[in-house]
Amino acid sequence: MDTNWLPDLAEAGRSKYKALANAIRDGVATGALESGQKLLPVRELAYQLSVTPGTVARAYSLLTEEGVLSAGVGRGTFVAEGGAQSDPSHDWPQMLSLRSPLLPDMGQSDMIRDAMQKTADQINSRDLLSYPSRAMDLPLRRAMRRWMSDLPIGAFTAEELVLTHGAQHALILVMQTVLKGPEPVVAVEDLTYTGFRRAAALCRARVVAVDTDEEGPVVEHLERLVREEGVQLFCTSSEVNNPTVRFTSDRRRREIAKMARRLDLHIVDDDCYAIGTHRAESYYTLLPDRGWYISSLSKALSPALRVGYVVAPKAFVPDLERTAHFNSFGLAPPLSDLAYRFLEDPRLRSVAAKVRVRINELVRTAVNHLGGHDVSWNEDVPLLWLKLPYGWRTSSFVHAAESRGVLVRSAEDFILRDGRAPHAVRIGVNGMVDPARFEDGIVRLAELLDNPREEIGV
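RE: above sequence
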């Protein structure tokens, strides 16, 4: 059933695609848009609303990824059955999102439910009526320290851990603690995690890009930026660069740490994506006076808990604690208690191992089909970096993949505004769908790679 439903975007402001997405969500929630209804084509709705087709396409893509809408290749865009994502293992015409990695459920949801029940039954009533405090989250910090026992980040105690609402929040807190002056400057790699730039923007910091080579960030260029641009903080992911999956060599880390020590440069090491054995020491170990280590439970266990952490240089722990306190007082007692019980569950290590095995299997499946092309991968990382063959431009490949029901992320998403993006895409491992469906999506991408735009006339 088609629909002539139109939203009112008169008060939308600058983010019209977000306003449109919110209007569609509201329409589904109120029943103005019913399950199975077909929405207007992108160009027609754009014309009706006096917005660009890209605005509508972005809103549709976002809602398809959330499961509010479904897109059948060649059929159009529909309100998903029930207004929410249907079982993806039985609905292959629905868009397959490989834009971001998604974890398989190997028992985490049951663990979270059980932890919720125990928290509801056993949490101290006074804690339910109190503001958070550093003392209240000590059991969780100790449990987190035990969880981190295998990481190569040297000797530290629970007292040096500061808990946060996820790794992105951790990054912002570090920036707010470290950056000084009216226009602080942050350095990032030339291809890097977009969250670094967004956190810097919130802290009103200017961002500059560091050249990289096969071993990691180029030391001489980073030093020049520190001296000439006044860089105070370098944000990096030394174990797994997002998006390129590149590993910064041990030699390069030591060279950078030596330079940072000499120039009083802070380095934050974001270690969210590595779920296996680490291959070298972090900057927290190599640069104990200026190295910061951040991570979270999101990429290894579950993003739903929104619990991250910072291991801070000892001298800066009080400053970071104060920043965290001024931001949110800390984790709410029910959340810290829930996370503590989750981490203390005897099933934890077994479930984490099962998650890793499934990710390994899916990465190998992808490489089996894409290995004939220029693809960077590590079986313990839920990402693949694919350099496109001659005949494909990034935008054309992304659109062609979407037309075949697969969403991937363009290299342009990972550069600074004035940077130059390679013709490449990042593929996220989607562990939430049936492995056969994941493989089907990878096969579609492989078919595109083997038949460049010039030949297939997309």
